[in-house]
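Design job #97: recover the sequence.
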Protein backbone atom coordinates (compact mmCIF):
# COMPACT_ATOMS: atom_id res chain seq x y z
CA UNK A 1 0.00 0.00 0.00
CA UNK A 2 1.25 3.47 -0.91
CA UNK A 3 1.63 6.09 1.82
CA UNK A 4 1.92 9.61 0.43
CA UNK A 5 3.37 12.74 2.05
CA UNK A 6 2.73 16.15 0.47
CA UNK A 7 5.12 18.85 1.71
CA UNK A 8 3.89 22.41 1.23
CA UNK A 9 0.32 21.16 0.79
CA UNK A 10 -1.23 24.49 1.72
CA UNK A 11 -0.09 26.28 -1.44
CA UNK A 12 -1.84 26.81 -4.76
CA UNK A 13 -0.76 23.50 -6.30
CA UNK A 14 -0.74 21.46 -3.09
CA UNK A 15 -4.29 22.33 -2.09
CA UNK A 16 -5.72 20.71 -5.22
CA UNK A 17 -3.11 17.99 -5.69
CA UNK A 18 -3.75 16.65 -2.18
CA UNK A 19 -7.42 16.16 -2.97
CA UNK A 20 -6.58 14.36 -6.23
CA UNK A 21 -4.10 12.08 -4.44
CA UNK A 22 -6.76 11.21 -1.85
CA UNK A 23 -9.11 10.30 -4.69
CA UNK A 24 -6.42 8.02 -6.10
CA UNK A 25 -4.97 6.41 -2.97
CA UNK A 26 -7.66 6.96 -0.33
CA UNK A 27 -7.82 9.55 2.46
CA UNK A 28 -6.06 7.33 4.97
CA UNK A 29 -3.04 6.93 2.67
CA UNK A 30 -2.32 10.66 2.34
CA UNK A 31 -0.72 13.07 4.81
CA UNK A 32 -0.84 16.78 4.00
CA UNK A 33 1.89 18.86 5.64
CA UNK A 34 2.68 22.55 5.72
CA UNK A 35 4.76 25.00 7.73
CA UNK A 36 1.64 26.91 8.71
CA UNK A 37 -0.79 25.30 11.14
CA UNK A 38 -3.57 27.44 9.61
CA UNK A 39 -3.38 25.28 6.47
CA UNK A 40 -5.01 22.46 8.45
CA UNK A 41 -8.45 23.91 7.75
CA UNK A 42 -8.08 22.97 4.08
CA UNK A 43 -7.64 19.28 4.82
CA UNK A 44 -10.58 18.07 6.87
CA UNK A 45 -10.78 15.03 4.57
CA UNK A 46 -7.28 13.65 5.33
CA UNK A 47 -4.56 13.78 7.96
CA UNK A 48 -2.59 16.98 8.44
CA UNK A 49 0.83 17.41 10.01
CA UNK A 50 2.49 20.74 10.69
CA UNK A 51 6.03 20.40 9.35
CA UNK A 52 9.03 22.63 8.72
CA UNK A 53 10.80 21.03 5.77
CA UNK A 54 14.06 22.57 7.01
CA UNK A 55 13.80 20.53 10.22
CA UNK A 56 15.54 17.46 8.87
CA UNK A 57 15.20 15.39 12.04
CA UNK A 58 11.43 15.89 12.21
CA UNK A 59 11.13 15.15 8.50
CA UNK A 60 13.04 11.87 8.84
CA UNK A 61 11.04 10.88 11.91
CA UNK A 62 7.73 11.47 10.14
CA UNK A 63 8.76 9.52 7.05
CA UNK A 64 9.94 6.57 9.12
CA UNK A 65 7.06 6.49 11.61
CA UNK A 66 4.42 6.70 8.88
CA UNK A 67 6.18 4.31 6.46
CA UNK A 68 6.00 6.92 3.69
CA UNK A 69 6.51 5.51 0.17
CA UNK A 70 6.02 8.65 -1.94
CA UNK A 71 6.89 12.30 -1.33
CA UNK A 72 5.54 15.30 -3.23
CA UNK A 73 7.89 18.14 -2.33
CA UNK A 74 6.07 21.37 -3.19
CA UNK A 75 7.46 23.79 -0.59
CA UNK A 76 9.35 26.67 -2.22
CA UNK A 77 9.89 30.42 -2.29
CA UNK A 78 8.49 31.62 -5.63
CA UNK A 79 9.93 34.07 -8.16
CA UNK A 80 8.69 37.49 -7.05
CA UNK A 81 9.16 36.81 -3.33
CA UNK A 82 12.53 35.20 -4.03
CA UNK A 83 13.89 38.41 -5.56
CA UNK A 84 13.18 40.20 -2.31
CA UNK A 85 14.82 37.50 -0.17
CA UNK A 86 17.35 35.80 -2.45
CA UNK A 87 19.53 34.06 0.17
CA UNK A 88 16.53 32.75 2.07
CA UNK A 89 14.96 31.55 -1.19
CA UNK A 90 18.13 29.71 -2.21
CA UNK A 91 18.50 28.11 1.21
CA UNK A 92 14.92 26.90 1.42
CA UNK A 93 14.60 25.78 -2.19
CA UNK A 94 17.95 23.96 -2.34
CA UNK A 95 18.53 22.54 1.12
CA UNK A 96 15.03 21.10 1.39
CA UNK A 97 15.36 19.29 -1.95
CA UNK A 98 18.77 17.86 -1.07
CA UNK A 99 17.45 16.64 2.29
CA UNK A 100 14.58 14.83 0.62
CA UNK A 101 16.80 13.30 -2.05
CA UNK A 102 19.14 12.04 0.66
CA UNK A 103 16.23 10.58 2.62
CA UNK A 104 14.92 8.94 -0.55
CA UNK A 105 18.32 7.37 -1.15
CA UNK A 106 18.63 6.09 2.41
CA UNK A 107 15.01 5.01 2.89
CA UNK A 108 14.44 3.47 -0.55
CA UNK A 109 11.31 5.53 -1.17
CA UNK A 110 9.32 4.37 -4.17
CA UNK A 111 9.04 7.81 -5.80
CA UNK A 112 9.75 11.49 -5.25
CA UNK A 113 8.00 14.32 -7.06
CA UNK A 114 9.61 17.77 -7.22
CA UNK A 115 8.29 20.59 -9.43
CA UNK A 116 10.50 22.72 -11.61
CA UNK A 117 9.42 25.76 -13.62
CA UNK A 118 9.82 27.76 -16.82
CA UNK A 119 11.90 30.02 -14.56
CA UNK A 120 14.89 27.77 -15.40
CA UNK A 121 15.01 29.53 -18.77
CA UNK A 122 16.69 32.90 -19.21
CA UNK A 123 17.05 35.82 -21.62
CA UNK A 124 19.34 33.83 -23.94
CA UNK A 125 16.90 30.92 -24.24
CA UNK A 126 14.92 30.66 -27.51
CA UNK A 127 11.70 32.54 -26.73
CA UNK A 128 9.26 30.74 -29.02
CA UNK A 129 8.52 27.02 -28.75
CA UNK A 130 11.39 26.70 -26.28
CA UNK A 131 12.91 23.21 -26.69
CA UNK A 132 13.43 20.67 -23.93
CA UNK A 133 17.21 20.89 -24.24
CA UNK A 134 18.67 24.36 -24.75
CA UNK A 135 20.70 27.11 -23.08
CA UNK A 136 19.04 28.30 -19.88
CA UNK A 137 21.03 30.86 -17.84
CA UNK A 138 18.20 31.93 -15.47
CA UNK A 139 18.57 35.38 -13.92
CA UNK A 140 16.31 35.02 -10.85
CA UNK A 141 17.16 33.18 -7.65
CA UNK A 142 14.02 31.08 -8.12
CA UNK A 143 15.16 30.06 -11.62
CA UNK A 144 18.72 29.42 -10.48
CA UNK A 145 17.49 27.18 -7.66
CA UNK A 146 15.19 25.29 -10.02
CA UNK A 147 17.96 24.77 -12.57
CA UNK A 148 20.32 23.50 -9.85
CA UNK A 149 17.52 21.31 -8.48
CA UNK A 150 17.01 19.72 -11.88
CA UNK A 151 20.67 18.75 -12.02
CA UNK A 152 20.50 17.26 -8.51
CA UNK A 153 17.44 15.22 -9.46
CA UNK A 154 19.26 13.86 -12.50
CA UNK A 155 22.33 13.14 -10.36
CA UNK A 156 20.44 11.21 -7.67
CA UNK A 157 18.66 9.15 -10.31
CA UNK A 158 21.85 8.28 -12.17
CA UNK A 159 24.09 7.73 -9.13
CA UNK A 160 21.67 6.21 -6.61
CA UNK A 161 18.62 5.11 -8.59
CA UNK A 162 16.25 7.51 -6.82
CA UNK A 163 13.00 7.49 -8.81
CA UNK A 164 12.53 11.26 -8.88
CA UNK A 165 10.17 12.83 -11.38
CA UNK A 166 9.65 16.48 -12.31
CA UNK A 167 7.72 18.89 -14.52
CA UNK A 168 8.65 22.41 -15.60
CA UNK A 169 5.34 24.06 -14.85
CA UNK A 170 4.25 27.12 -16.81
CA UNK A 171 2.18 29.73 -14.99
CA UNK A 172 -0.54 27.90 -13.06
CA UNK A 173 -4.04 29.34 -12.86
CA UNK A 174 -6.68 28.17 -10.42
CA UNK A 175 -9.58 29.56 -8.42
CA UNK A 176 -9.29 27.45 -5.25
CA UNK A 177 -6.30 29.30 -3.75
CA UNK A 178 -5.14 32.90 -3.61
CA UNK A 179 -1.94 34.04 -5.41
CA UNK A 180 1.28 32.95 -3.73
CA UNK A 181 4.03 35.32 -4.88
CA UNK A 182 4.79 34.31 -8.47
CA UNK A 183 5.31 36.40 -11.60
CA UNK A 184 2.36 34.77 -13.36
CA UNK A 185 -0.01 35.46 -10.43
CA UNK A 186 -1.72 38.24 -12.36
CA UNK A 187 -3.60 35.50 -14.22
CA UNK A 188 -5.10 34.33 -10.91
CA UNK A 189 -5.80 37.70 -9.30
CA UNK A 190 -7.48 39.09 -12.42
CA UNK A 191 -10.44 36.72 -11.99
CA UNK A 192 -11.00 37.79 -8.39
CA UNK A 193 -11.10 41.45 -9.42
CA UNK A 194 -13.46 40.67 -12.29
CA UNK A 195 -15.89 38.86 -10.01
CA UNK A 196 -15.69 41.69 -7.43
CA UNK A 197 -16.43 44.33 -10.07
CA UNK A 198 -13.10 46.12 -9.56
CA UNK A 199 -10.67 47.53 -12.10
CA UNK A 200 -7.66 45.25 -12.31
CA UNK A 201 -4.16 46.74 -12.13
CA UNK A 202 -1.85 44.41 -14.03
CA UNK A 203 1.83 44.35 -13.08
CA UNK A 204 2.82 43.08 -16.55
CA UNK A 205 2.62 44.79 -19.94
CA UNK A 206 -0.47 44.00 -22.02
CA UNK A 207 1.54 42.10 -24.64
CA UNK A 208 3.68 39.95 -22.31
CA UNK A 209 3.13 36.42 -23.59
CA UNK A 210 3.84 33.57 -21.18
CA UNK A 211 3.13 29.83 -21.15
CA UNK A 212 0.14 29.12 -18.90
CA UNK A 213 -1.88 26.16 -17.64
CA UNK A 214 -5.21 25.71 -15.89
CA UNK A 215 -4.89 23.88 -12.58
CA UNK A 216 -6.90 20.76 -13.57
CA UNK A 217 -4.39 20.18 -16.38
CA UNK A 218 -1.46 20.68 -13.98
CA UNK A 219 -2.94 18.12 -11.58
CA UNK A 220 -3.56 15.71 -14.45
CA UNK A 221 0.03 16.07 -15.70
CA UNK A 222 1.44 15.50 -12.21
CA UNK A 223 -0.58 12.33 -11.68
CA UNK A 224 0.19 11.15 -15.22
CA UNK A 225 3.95 11.36 -14.81
CA UNK A 226 3.87 9.80 -11.35
CA UNK A 227 1.67 6.92 -12.56
CA UNK A 228 3.75 6.32 -15.69
CA UNK A 229 5.94 3.18 -15.77
CA UNK A 230 9.50 3.86 -14.62
CA UNK A 231 10.90 3.07 -18.06
CA UNK A 232 8.61 5.66 -19.72
CA UNK A 233 10.09 8.53 -17.71
CA UNK A 234 13.18 9.13 -19.81
CA UNK A 235 14.07 12.64 -18.60
CA UNK A 236 15.04 12.87 -14.94
CA UNK A 237 15.93 16.54 -14.77
CA UNK A 238 12.47 17.93 -15.60
CA UNK A 239 10.03 17.78 -18.51
CA UNK A 240 8.84 20.82 -20.42
CA UNK A 241 5.07 21.14 -19.98
CA UNK A 242 2.67 23.30 -21.94
CA UNK A 243 -1.02 23.91 -22.54
CA UNK A 244 -1.53 27.49 -23.82
CA UNK A 245 0.22 30.83 -24.16
CA UNK A 246 -1.46 34.22 -23.88
CA UNK A 247 -0.88 37.86 -22.93
CA UNK A 248 -2.61 39.86 -20.18
CA UNK A 249 -4.57 41.66 -22.91
CA UNK A 250 -5.85 38.39 -24.34
CA UNK A 251 -6.89 37.09 -20.92
CA UNK A 252 -8.63 40.40 -20.17
CA UNK A 253 -10.51 40.19 -23.47
CA UNK A 254 -11.57 36.59 -22.73
CA UNK A 255 -12.98 37.70 -19.36
CA UNK A 256 -14.58 40.82 -20.85
CA UNK A 257 -16.52 38.59 -23.25
CA UNK A 258 -18.26 37.17 -20.18
CA UNK A 259 -18.21 40.38 -18.06
CA UNK A 260 -18.43 43.32 -20.53
CA UNK A 261 -18.07 46.03 -17.85
CA UNK A 262 -14.71 44.69 -16.62
CA UNK A 263 -11.79 47.14 -16.94
CA UNK A 264 -8.00 46.96 -16.65
CA UNK A 265 -4.97 49.21 -16.15
CA UNK A 266 -1.43 48.19 -17.04
CA UNK A 267 1.23 49.22 -14.52
CA UNK A 268 4.33 47.05 -15.10
CA UNK A 269 6.63 46.70 -12.07
CA UNK A 270 9.81 44.74 -11.26
CA UNK A 271 8.08 41.51 -12.30
CA UNK A 272 8.07 42.68 -15.91
CA UNK A 273 11.82 42.09 -16.17
CA UNK A 274 11.34 38.56 -14.82
CA UNK A 275 8.58 37.83 -17.33
CA UNK A 276 10.69 39.21 -20.18
CA UNK A 277 13.38 36.61 -19.42
CA UNK A 278 10.96 33.69 -19.75
CA UNK A 279 9.68 31.94 -22.90
CA UNK A 280 6.61 33.00 -24.87
CA UNK A 281 5.76 29.35 -25.55
CA UNK A 282 7.23 25.93 -24.76
CA UNK A 283 7.74 22.72 -26.75
CA UNK A 284 6.58 19.80 -24.60
CA UNK A 285 6.76 17.10 -27.27
CA UNK A 286 8.97 14.87 -25.07
CA UNK A 287 6.26 14.67 -22.40
CA UNK A 288 3.63 13.94 -25.02
CA UNK A 289 5.75 11.22 -26.61
CA UNK A 290 7.24 9.57 -23.51
CA UNK A 291 4.22 9.26 -21.22
CA UNK A 292 1.26 10.47 -23.24
CA UNK A 293 0.73 13.98 -21.90
CA UNK A 294 -2.16 15.92 -23.43
CA UNK A 295 -3.84 19.07 -22.10
CA UNK A 296 -7.60 19.64 -22.01
CA UNK A 297 -8.12 23.38 -21.39
CA UNK A 298 -7.53 26.42 -23.60
CA UNK A 299 -8.05 30.06 -22.58
CA UNK A 300 -11.77 30.15 -23.43
CA UNK A 301 -12.62 26.90 -21.63
CA UNK A 302 -10.58 27.93 -18.60
CA UNK A 303 -12.13 31.41 -18.40
CA UNK A 304 -15.68 30.09 -18.52
CA UNK A 305 -14.95 27.41 -15.91
CA UNK A 306 -13.38 29.86 -13.45
CA UNK A 307 -16.10 32.48 -13.81
CA UNK A 308 -18.78 29.84 -13.19
CA UNK A 309 -17.07 28.31 -10.14
CA UNK A 310 -15.19 31.15 -8.42
CA UNK A 311 -18.21 33.06 -7.07
CA UNK A 312 -19.40 29.93 -5.26
CA UNK A 313 -16.02 29.02 -3.76
CA UNK A 314 -15.40 29.77 -0.09
CA UNK A 315 -11.85 30.48 1.12
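Job complete. Output follows.
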Amino acid sequence: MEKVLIIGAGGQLGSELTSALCDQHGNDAVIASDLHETAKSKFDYCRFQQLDVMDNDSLKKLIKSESITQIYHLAAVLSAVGEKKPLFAWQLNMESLLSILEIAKESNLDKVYWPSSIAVFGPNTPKTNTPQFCVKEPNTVYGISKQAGERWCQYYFEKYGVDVRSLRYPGLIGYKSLPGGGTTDYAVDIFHKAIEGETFECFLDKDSYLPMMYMPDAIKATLDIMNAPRESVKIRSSYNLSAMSFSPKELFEAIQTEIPEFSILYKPDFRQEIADSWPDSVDDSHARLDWGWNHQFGIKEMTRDILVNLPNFQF
